[in-house]
Amino acid sequence: MPPNAERNAKYKRILLKLSGEALTGEQEFGIDPKVLDRMALEIGQLVGIGVQVGMVIGGGNLFRGAALHAAGMERVTGDHMGMLATVMNALAMRDALERANIRSRVMSAIPMSGVVEHYDRRTAIRYLTAGDVVIFSAGTGNPFFTTDSAACLRGIEIDANVVLKATKVDGVYDRDPVRYPEATKYQRLSYDDVLDQKLGVMDLTAICLVRDHSMPVRVFDMSRRGALLNLVMGGREGTIVDEGPSQ
Length: 247
Ligand SMILES: Nc1ncnc2c1ncn2[C@@H]1O[C@H](COP(=O)(O)OP(=O)(O)OP(=O)(O)O)[C@@H](O)[C@H]1O
Ligand SMILES: O=c1ccn([C@@H]2O[C@H](COP(=O)(O)O)[C@@H](O)[C@H]2O)c(=O)[nH]1
Description:
With 247 residues, this protein is α/β, with parallel strands linked by helices. 37% of the residues lie in helices and 17% in strands. Residues 20, 58-60, 64-66, 78-79, 82-83, 85-86, 139-140, 142-143, 145-150 line the site of ligand LLZGTKA7.
């Protein structure tokens, strides 16, 4: 780590949103421990330079309410299963962090006594200030939301400098780059352009929330080694969504 890395970090407190779906890694379903271990190392580098890390992990590798509903399940039950999936991912992430000697806590928006702590904002901020990684699980605790909304909500609540969305694509494009390989990537986008163009990388509820609170979001590729540290140190990585202008 270069000298003065802590002083030079662009962000002192971040909310890192990890894609649940990307946790599957090379497996068919579930959690690939290799992905977790690599993320634990990358998060450890941030903690090592004094960056405070709050996290939200998606549940798309296990269950999504909308998909369960499409298969015939009542929607709210599906969403409850989706939120419980995020708690499982959070437990697995905590395990990987602790094996790498990084102190971490899991809090849940749904009370789960004996398994994880119930979410409390002031306690979470105390843990972050003490240098513990805090994983916020069970989304917002309410159906019909996503973990992107939960990440933006918690990011605003803990007064993070930025929400970092670590996902399977390397930024926001004018169309879904997975379906349209010729799509063009934006370096920077205004909240209003994401909303007006209905760009699908993050749900629109989440974008409205960050816009109302002027919280910048950066979308970047989770599989690119070193991308997280580079971004926190001020490097060009992914797409920034803020007041704009778009470019
Ligand atoms: N305009 C766009 N720019 C970039 N990605 C887009 C765009 N429109 C749709 N996408 C898709 O959005 C996906 C990322 O968002 P999504 O919410 O599906 O995943 P995630 O949040 O990473 O996963 P999870 O819900 O499991 O946490 C990308 O994999 C990409 O295919
Ligand atoms: O606040 C929330 C957050 C999530 N859910 C449900 O969980 C799954 C998994 O989250 P992803 O963001 O899709 O990874 C989601 O599909 C919802 O069903 C929720 O109900 N409320």
